[in-house]
Amino acid sequence: MRLLYFAWVKEKTGVAAEEVELPPSVTTVGELMDWLKTRGPEFADAFARTDVVRAAIDQTHVRHDARLAGAYEIAFFPPVTGG
Amino acid sequence: MIRVQEEDFDLGAEVALLKEGRTDIGAIVAFLGTVRDRGGAVEEMTLEHYPAMTEAELARIEAEANARWPLQASLIIHRYGTLKPGDNIVLVATASEHRDAAFAAAEFLIDYLKTGAPFWKRESGPEGHRWVEADARDEGAYARWKTTKDAAE
Predict the structure, then answer these.
(1) Which of B90, B116, B133 sits opposite A61 (nearest CB)?
(2) Are residues A7 and B89, on separate chains, in Cβ contact within 8 Å?
(3) What gap in Å lies between CA A10 and CA A17, rounded to an integer?
(4) Is A8 within the bounds of a domain?
(5) Smallest Cα–Cα separation from B105: which of B134, B140, B45, B64?
């Protein structure tokens, strides 16, 4: 699965994009964030407040309870500030 | 029409293009968003985006506006990259027979864009840099259209 990070989520993780193999127990966006937190201090910091991190599955906004089955690309980012 | 680009655009030229060869348009509303320096605190603004998602999201927003109002044309241009105070960031333009639809649709487009389009602003100034935080008022402006739609259903 491809993971993308944007804005301060990217700054904190130090990673823009990566391919990961997820454990079978990780089935939702929320569970994925909890798993990411365990990957080191940078990730723990980036996902310390999961309530403010937004997610998209295959370029569509999703809630944290969205299921990952069939997903190709998951993106994590702060609330958007364009316009 | 949707354009996501690094280069600047010209409001007059874009509006001229929107109505070129058209005699059925009675009203055009254009919203231009620009970089402000917040009293000298901002020297530079960098806009990051999620290219694969940005165009899809803007197209979805534009289709939604066209489903709600009788628009004859619409245009969204959003820039990314490094900008200076005074620079153009975004243009939303709507054309319709009468002004009501054009005004409402333009406001809807910018409200939806601000809460949905995957852009992030980073300001740099004498005090360093910071990511701009989402403004709760933008969520409120967005929610207002939800209510209008729900009430109509």
Answers:
(1) B116
(2) no
(3) 9
(4) yes
(5) B64
The 10s digit of each residue's pLDDT in B53-79 is 999 999 999 999 999 999 999 999 999
Predicted pLDDT of residue B150: 55
Decide if A82 is inside a domain.
no
Q: Which residues are registered as beta bridge partners of A1?
A: none
Q: Quick check: ipTM above 0.90?
A: yes
Q: Give B57-75 as a DSSP string.
A: HHHHHHHHHHHHS-EEEEE
CATH of the domain at A48: 3.10.20.30
For B33, the closest chain A residue by CA position comes to A83
- Residue whose entry in the numeric block shows the structure tokens 């910091």: A45
Asked if residues B53 and A56 have their Cβ atoms less than 8 Å apart, the reply is: yes
Identify the residue among B58, B90, B120 best suited for mutation to test binding to A, counting A beta carbons within 10 A and taking the highest. B120
Q: Would you say residue A33 lies in a domain?
A: yes
Domains of chain B, each with CATH number or no CATH:
2-152 (3.90.1170.40)
